[in-house]
Specification:
Radius of gyration: 61 Å
Number of helices: 12
Strand content: 15-25%
Order of helices and strands: HEEEHEEHEHEHEHEHEHHHHHEEE
Helix content: 40-55%
Number of strands: 13
Strand order of the largest sheet: 1-2-3-5-4
């Protein structure tokens, strides 16, 4: 319940602490999961002190338990172990400190961890965080590579040495962070976000060497997976060895089996590229030479044709053929003219022979009436009618019946 206070009627510190303790005492026992970061087992002491930390957030709480409670799991639980604790919250009023009084401690087994990771994997996959279409392609030749790894670790050495061996001019922006333990997740997330905020960084590599399932748990944390999914810069996951598959491998734009493999996939090999350029140049030269040789053969074949060796030969042949045709046409035309002349002469002779003038020359005469009609029958004229007689030498007038 809310407490009414004012500057004139404030509550003493002891009263506030007592009230907070009363509120906390009303809480029942709860099961709490976390990672043990500090463990104190003083010889002869009946109470064990430990600190339980949230692996994904920078939050921790002190835990106390009787020695017999901890001794039951002392062989399998130590600093860095993930445990589930049945505890009741307690408030220590003199110091204003919250702690947990553990009644039972259970280690989180590998099988249980893997089952939880599988459930988280299915949930994230259902959201589309692992979809292939959201994967971003890596640049062919990154100018600046962001590297998140442990300080002075073998993973850092493998990535830097192999990348610089392959491409000596490559540059790195390195962020050294814890890669296991309770501080790993928040610092890895912060490093990834910092590198993603640098415009010059072309690709980010998150690298770590091999380890147990518990050691690699930070790279399956939901907070880290979501941070990588939101990156605008391509991210390469190089965690552990070939069999290790933390959830970071699924959300990253590219999975490398080892840190060395990451260097090979992110940076091209200058020797291989130079050899590829040489092979392409030789191939282009062979193609050009083959094209030139083919064109030269075609040109030589064209020049070897008779029309190219003697360009006027075809004209001369055509000229001779044309002259032959002209001569032939002249002969044909002459024969046709001669035949037409002969036919014309023959026809003319026939016409002359059959013409009225020729008949008149043989002594015949043509009688015509005054209107020009030829007299063919004596019945056509009357006695004494004037007629015109036409003979070969001319014409004269005669009268019928005289």
């Amino acid at each position: 319940m809310a407490v009414n206070t004012s500057p004139e009627a404030p509550l003493p510190v002891g009263e506030v602490s007592r009230m907070i303790g009363g509120w906390i005492d009303r809480l029942g026992a709860v099961w709490v999961e976390g990672q043990i970061t500090q463990l104190s087992r003083r010889p002869g002491a009946g109470v064990v002190f430990l600190t339980l930390r949230d692996p994904s957030h920078d939050i921790s709480v002190g835990v106390t338990c009787y020695r017999q409670v901890f001794d039951s799991v002392a062989d399998v639980v130590g600093e860095g172990a993930r445990v589930v604790v049945l505890a009741k919250p307690e408030w220590y009023a003199p110091r204003g400190q919250l702690s947990l009084r553990a009644a039972e401690i259970r280690p989180v087994g590998v099988g249980e961890l893997l089952a939880r990771l599988e459930q988280l994997k299915k949930a994230l996959a259902a959201e589309g965080l692992f979809a292939a279409e959201r994967k971003k392609p890596l640049p062919f030749l990154p100018q600046l590579i962001g590297l998140v790894c442990g300080r002075a670790s073998a993973a850092e050495r493998d990535v830097l040495e192999n990348a610089r061996h392959r491409w000596p001019a490559v540059r790195f922006e390195v962020r050294n962070v814890p890669v296991q333990g309770v501080h790993a997740v928040p610092q890895v997330v912060q490093a990834v976000k910092e590198l993603d905020g640098i415009d010059e960084v072309d690709v980010i590599v998150v690298a770590r060497g091999g380890g147990s399932v518990e050691d690699l748990l930070p790279f399956s944390d939901e907070q880290l997976v979501r941070a990588v999914a939101q990156c605008r810069t391509p991210v390469v996951s190089a965690i552990g060895h070939e069999p290790d598959t933390p959830l970071l491998d699924y959300v990253a734009d590219l999975r490398a089996s080892t840190p060395t493999d990451a260097a090979k996939k992110v940076v091209p090999d200058v020797g291989e590229e130079a050899e590829r350029v040489r092979m392409l140049r030789d191939r282009a030269r062979r193609c050009v030479n083959a094209l030139l040789e083919r064109e030269e053969r075609g040109l030589a074949h064209a020049l070897a044709r008779p029309s190219m060796e003697d360009p006027h030969r075809m004209i001369d042949e055509r000229a001779d053929h044309l002259a032959s045709l002209v001569e032939r046409s002249r002969r044909t035309l002459g024969h046709q003219l001669d035949r037409a002349d002969s036919e014309l002469t023959h026809t003319h002779a026939r016409v002359v022979a059959l013409s009225p003038a020729a008949t008149l020359k043989r002594g015949y005469a043509v009688l015509q009436r005054a209107d020009g009609h030829v007299v063919r029958d004596p019945e056509e004229v009357t006695r004494g009618e004037a007629l015109r007689a036409r003979v070969a030498g001319g014409e004269f007038t005669v009268k019928a019946g005289e």
